[in-house]
């Protein structure tokens, strides 16, 4: 299996993550471990390759070959292709109609080349200059390297405001019992946008450039059509006192990209032709020579070809290249994917092993039988968690039984910190975490009791914690039940898990994950 990802794979991956969020933890552990053992991949396989094998296995299970067209990724991909085709047709039609409407000519008033240059050429040049200016800023200023261009910021601002407005308007018409689910759905959209926003920018960028290509094709076609089928005169006039020499220098500068290839007589109007096509309102056009009035159209078409069509085609190919490169180099390091990889690499253990078998032998009839689990990769790169626990359950969480329970999920306890004792201690702890050097294989696990509702103080604490540790450090929220003597903590109720997940989804944090921290050996 190749390690090449497609955008439909990312959509399907998020869809399967969403399905698994309400599944039983032990069944997930068994299923994902079995997928890993059946995959036959080497212990040194990259996380992306493990995810790809898991994705293919889940896709084969839920969407067999005859139902593959029903997968969300396939539907999204086909919808994007259809949208692109529609936009190309709209752009081609719009460009053609705009050109035909512009060249409406009664025979008494020539087409003002200033209007043509401003509407169809200079506006595109301004956008291109803005794009290249952004690229230069990204090379010079590190702060600009996080976004592909100013267009991305503009796109994000427009989408955020539009979706927020729609969300608020729709929410007012929903019953009270449906508003939480509705808000959670919108929150998932924002999380995906923050998680893959830079990756998803390039398809949008490429589509927008394809649309501009179609618009320019329509304009060029309309210009040729009107020139061939009509007797169109081109001239220039302005209230400002602009000399013919200044116009000539501007025209000659614009023609630099093609003037070396095309003879000067056709590349751009000469100084005499520019002077001969100047329109003076009181004199009209009757004294102007025809050869001067028609000398402009090759120059205008070449401007469209160069600054409209060719530059946009170059941006289309650049966008496609960067799109493929982004897919090759992106890393999925979200809490959901980390937990999945840990489930795949962590062998299931049993306390009911036979005397002749290893203590790590799994005792699940008909499922998995591991005598020598493949855990070398996991042992070499353990995922270390800084555990944050409330003071009232801190002693229980420091026990060996709790550490074993965490390690069943493939994580390792690095250190413990007390949280939500008082404001001063919380600020000291956040400051300490902010100064900590976080590695790629580290994160934070917050232990909360699921039966207690997620109040505003905890949500504010999570926001402060995110600000302290950084944007992409994984933060896990482990839900536990009430304390018990035999199993340390009881399993949280599914209703409580749902409430917590809905509330935390509202934070729109793509690197925040909530799951039930249970003892897998005692879960049924």
Descriptive overview:
With 524 residues, this protein is an alpha/beta fold. It folds into two domains: 73-329, no CATH class; 382-524, Rossmann fold (3-Layer(aba) Sandwich). Helix content is 59%, strand content 8%. It has 20 helices and nine strands. A five-stranded parallel sheet has the order 4-3-5-6-9, with helices on both faces. Strands 1-2 form a two-stranded parallel ribbon. Strands 7-8 form a two-stranded antiparallel ribbon. A hairpin with a 3-residue loop joins strand 7 and strand 8 (488-489). Helix 5 packs parallel to helix 13 (297-329). It starts with 6 loop residues before the first helix and ends in an 8-residue tail after the last strand. The model is unreliable at 350-369 and 371-380 (pLDDT under 50).
**Total of helices:** 20
Secondary-structure content class = alpha/beta
Q: Please mark out the parts with pLDDT under 50 across 5 or more consecutive residues, or reply none.
A: 350-369, 371-380
List the domain count as a whole number: 2
Strand coverage percent:
5-15%
Main-sheet strand order equals 4-3-5-6-9
Helix content bin: 55-70%
Give the mean pLDDT: 77
Shape: elongated
Rg over CA atoms, rounded to whole Å, is 32 Å
Topology as a string of helices (H) and strands (E)? HHHHEHHHEHHHHHHHHEHHEHEHEEEHE
How far do the termini sit from each other?
35 Å
Largest sheet: 5 strands, parallel
**Strand segment tally:** 9
